[in-house]
Description:
By secondary structure, the chain is mainly alpha-helical. Helices cover 63% and strands 1% of the residues.
Amino acid sequence: MIAALLAPIVAAVVDTFGQAQGWLFQTVVHPVVYHLGFGEFTEEAFEGTEWLLIGMCELLLLFLVLRPMEALIPAQKITDPRARWNDFLYTVLHRIGLFSVLIFFTLDPLMDTLAGALRFDNVRPLHLETLLPGISPLASFLIYFVLLDFVDYCYHRASHHFGWWWGLHSLHHSQQNLNLWSDNRNHLLDDLLRDVVMAVIALGIGVPPGQYILLVSISRILQSLQHANVRLHFGRIGERLLVSPRFHRTHHAIGIGHESKGKGSMGGCNFGVVLPIWDMLLGTANFSTGYARTGVRDQLARIDRNGIGRPGRNYGRGFWQQQWLGLRRMVEFARKKGRS
């Protein structure tokens, strides 16, 4: 009954979105692509327009919903507005700017080439519809959502385990004023690696392109909520069904979320991206009730063994400085085969 009532609304939304995508492509994207001499990438550019439009819709939603929530129920006082503004820049670049262009013209053709090579070798993706004939689109969507979330959990946990990888990922944790834009405060190389891994896995298990776009969009919106500077949790039961801002804030807590075994050691908790079930099953869940201070331990000033005061590690203030220092940490930690 409910599905029958929602069907016309969903159809109308999809039709409106399709018209908006067509208009945006014909009016803006297509002329720019040809002006830059990339006419052979027209098909990829049309697909990229869909991601661009979704990113714009996400930004609008975040402004209208999460930004007022941060003003009404903040978890902490923002002490560095510039750092939050810098996170906003990351979000814009990731959703509708530079990073999107990189993905359109590198990752999409790569995935198409890989898919073609697999078909040439008679290797077919493992479609749920083949394994479970008659499965509904909603059921297959939920199964794909759970499977990809588990892959995301594994990827996230690995980025805390290997020294060189932590050198990149620690940029994400260096925000001491966690906010709704902080989800996209990542090193571009780390983002690219993650997108390649997720796209390859999605291709391998047969996620339809339309479903994949929706899966990514829903995950991104939920992750923006998790990083928001809001004093919010989902209750005893809800906290175990969906990652909340409080649950994820514990993951960003200094000396708890990613260094729980002590300074310089591998540890951490609450690696779940959307679903906390993986942390619960694999022993990494921490349902602390507080709203801890966030950041990375080595950002803090310290007293060395000789009693001399030492400044904390510099993670950079602006976008390019943060990217450059991330690469330097990657090399440094790879040489040390660990973290410090």
